[in-house]
């Protein structure tokens, strides 16, 4: 594919943006057909782009761009296991992890779904054993607490889903409490260990590579803690650790018993891995049936992605509206704003999914790109962010594209009618805030009728014209969360396909890992001396400061 910036549709979109100039969303929104034209439904999901600075012609040109970038062929390549991760010479087959058991997917002469289903079955056995209270620690007591040790994709996805679906714990199982520790400084683990009983605690050592220093360090600390309290290292390893990784050898070398090893494949990227055995904490939280519902929701979205026309395709439309903002309106910031406390970690999860995937500046051909790629993305629960950073959205100088996400229904499962009503009132208030904010961002102060007596005071002005998309889900369930996550995964893929970059590698984080190890050596210097040749003056200064402060303490 030639550079997207050389395509006819790219040029036409530049002209469209010029023509649109400063035209305010207030004017565009004044059209009764707009909502119908720019919103789409699929299986309990609604995507509304009518608050984007998009006109019918804009959408037409964006779809033309997608076609000129051979998007449909690229989607097919992804889903059929072509080796599209060029720098690592392998496919990216996270979508295969959510195939129904009876489907086949042949890649390199192998039906890979056989291995996937076998891994799910092994996971199910472990989950059921723990839920039945039959997984016992070295003292014979059943496990009641599970700590997931992992970082990046081995932490953020499971953490986000466990938090979002905490209400979906099956009633007929003995509950286990799930905790997460990721930070290399040990602060989360130290906090957990203060409260935990070693006799009833199981650790999941979760790392695709099984060589990430952050997780290795936490696992080593956990291992010492257990051996210190319980003795007998061999039994501790056997009865208090499960390993999840792409490497059997490394798990065995570390001491994980073979029966406690869950394996996944190098064609599953870390940030796309929550559907694999990396999702073990999720299955422990919501049961294997719930986990399979999550997979089913994602699979339904995969099918929608594969078969819907581009003009009706939710991930394609979400991605194209992003491309319009980033590449043609120069809007380089993206906020993720869920209006549901259960989605607290969804923005964090998306920061890795989007920025580690598409934070690239080299094309698939190895050329420097001459257009912007992934924007800076951040987020927070919408109602809380209203009291934190919405000031900037309303009156700051930055243009920001916002995704508002909310469920339509909530709390119907509460049995006590009075409590149900109270919480449903709160949910209604949350939805009202969601719609009010996106409206205000679109219209500015025109959203509110002016009184004759109103003085046009500059500090009271809301300029509006901030674009946003709204994603509504009928209700938050394992199935709909699966859909929502897959929707964003595919959005990321579509943007990468347009930008002609590889969303499945992350070479930009490798050098940092290497250099940190050399830096740690400097902090161990017994003579408190820093080799001036090994570091720049700024870093030498910081190292010396620490060495002398440590010596004095
Ligand atoms: O699962 P692993 O191999 O420990 O890697 C953890 C994370 O580290 C990264 O490689 C980045 O440092 C991510 O891509 C990955 O999700």
Task: Write a structural description.
- The chain has 553 residues and is an alpha/beta fold.
- The protein has 3 domains: 26-68 and 310-447 and 462-499, Rossmann fold (3-Layer(aba) Sandwich); 119-285, Glucose-6-phosphate isomerase like protein, domain 1 (Rossmann fold); 513-552.
- The chain is built from 20 helices and 13 strands.
- It has helices at 8-20, 25-28, 34-38, 56-68, 71-79, 112-131, 156-164, 187-195, 213-230, 233-240, 248-254, 280-307, 314-328, 346-358, 382-386, 390-395, 417-443, 478-499, 510-523, 537-552, and strands at residues 39-42, 45-48, 106-107, 110-111, 145-149, 177-181, 201-206, 241-245, 261-263, 333-338, 376-379, 401-407, 468-473.
- A hairpin with a 2-residue loop joins strand 3 (106-107) and strand 4 (110-111).
- Helix 1 runs antiparallel to helix 4, helix 6 runs antiparallel to helix 12 and helix 7 packs across helix 12 (280-307).
- The chain binds 6-O-phosphono-beta-D-fructofuranose.
- 6-O-phosphono-beta-D-fructofuranose binds next to loops.
- 6-O-phosphono-beta-D-fructofuranose binds at residues 151-154, 207-209, 212, 215, 270-271, 356, 506, 509.
Strand content: 5-15%
- Name the shape in a single word: globular
Query: Which range best describes the helical content: under 10%, 10-25%, 25-40%, 40-55%, 55-70% or over 70%?
Result: 40-55%
List segments where confidence is low: pLDDT < 50 over at least 5 consecutive residues. none
**How does CATH name the architecture of the largest domain?**
3-Layer(aba) Sandwich
Structural class: alpha/beta
CATH C-level category of the largest domain:
Alpha Beta
Query: Would you tell me the overall average pLDDT?
Result: 96
> How many separate helices?
20
Number of domains: 3
Please state how the strands of the largest beta sheet are arranged side by side.
1-2-13-12-10-11
Terminal-residue CA separation = 60 Å
CATH superfamily of the largest domain: Glucose-6-phosphate isomerase like protein, domain 1
Q: Would you report the number of β strands?
A: 13
**Distinct ligands:** 6-O-phosphono-beta-D-fructofuranose
């Amino acid at each position: 594919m030639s550079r997207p910036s050389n395509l006819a549709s790219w040029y036409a979109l530049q002209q469209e943006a010029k023509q649109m100039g400063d035209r305010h969303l207030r004017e565009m929104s004044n059209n009764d057909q707009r909502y119908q034209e720019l919103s789409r439904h699929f299986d309990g999901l609604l995507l509304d782009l009518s608050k984007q600075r998009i006109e019918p012609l804009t959408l037409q040109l964006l779809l033309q761009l997608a076609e000129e970038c051979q998007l449909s062929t690229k989607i097919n390549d992804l889903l059929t296991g072509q080796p599209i991760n060029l720098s690592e010479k392998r496919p990216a087959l996270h979508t295969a992890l959510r195939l129904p058991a009876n489907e086949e997917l042949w890649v390199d002469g192998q039906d890979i779904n056989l291995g996937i289903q076998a891994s799910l079955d092994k996971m199910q056995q472990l989950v059921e054993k723990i839920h039945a209270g039959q997984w016992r620690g070295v003292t014979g007591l059943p496990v009641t607490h599970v700590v997931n040790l992992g970082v990046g994709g081995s932490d953020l996805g499971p953490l986000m889903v466990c938090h979002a679906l905490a209400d979906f714990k099956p009633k007929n199982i003995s509950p286990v409490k799930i905790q997460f520790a990721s930070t290399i400084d040990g602060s989360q683990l130290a906090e957990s260990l203060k409260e935990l009983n070693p006799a009833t605690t199981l650790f999941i050592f979760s790392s695709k590579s099984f060589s990430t220093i952050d997780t290795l360090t936490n696992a080593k600390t956990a291992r010492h803690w257990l051996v210190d309290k319980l003795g007998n290292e061999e039994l501790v390893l056997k009865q208090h650790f499960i390993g999840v990784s792409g490497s059997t050898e490394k798990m065995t070398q570390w001491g994980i018993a073979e029966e406690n090893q869950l394996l996944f494949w190098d064609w599953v990227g870390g940030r796309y891995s929550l559907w694999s055995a990396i999702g073990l904490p999720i299955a422990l939280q919501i049961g294997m049936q719930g986990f399979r519902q999550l997979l089913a929701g994602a699979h339904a979205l995969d099918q929608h992605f594969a078969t819907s026309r581009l003009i009706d395709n939710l991930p394609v439309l979400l991605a194209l509206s992003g491309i319009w903002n980033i590449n043609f309106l120069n809007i380089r910031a993206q906020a993720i704003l869920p209006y549901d406390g259960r989605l607290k970690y969804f923005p964090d999860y998306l920061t890795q999914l989007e920025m580690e995937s598409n934070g690239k500046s080299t094309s698939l051909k190895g050329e420097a790109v001459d257009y912007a790629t992934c924007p800076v993305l951040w987020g927070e629960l919408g109602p809380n962010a209203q009291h934190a950073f919405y000031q900037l959205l309303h009156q700051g100088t930055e243009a920001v594209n916002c995704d508002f996400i909310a469920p339509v229904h909530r709390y119907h499962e509460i049995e006590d009618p009075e409590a149900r009503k109270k919480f449903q009132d709160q949910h209604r208030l949350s939805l009202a805030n969601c719609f009010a904010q996106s409206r205000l961002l679109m219209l500015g102060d025109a959203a509110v009728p002016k009184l004759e007596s109103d003085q046009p005071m500059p500090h009271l002005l809301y300029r509006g014209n901030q674009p946003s998309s709204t994603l509504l889900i009928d209700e938050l369930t394992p199935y709909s969360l699966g859909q929502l996550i897959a929707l964003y995964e595919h959005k990321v893929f579509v943007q990468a396909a347009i930008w002609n970059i590889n969303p499945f590698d992350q070479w930009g984080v490798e050098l940092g890992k290497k250099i940190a190890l050399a830096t740690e050596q400097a902090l161990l210097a017994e003579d408190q001396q820093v080799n001036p040749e090994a570091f720049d003056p700024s870093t030498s200064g910081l190292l010396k400061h620490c060495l002398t402060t440590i010596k004095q303490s």
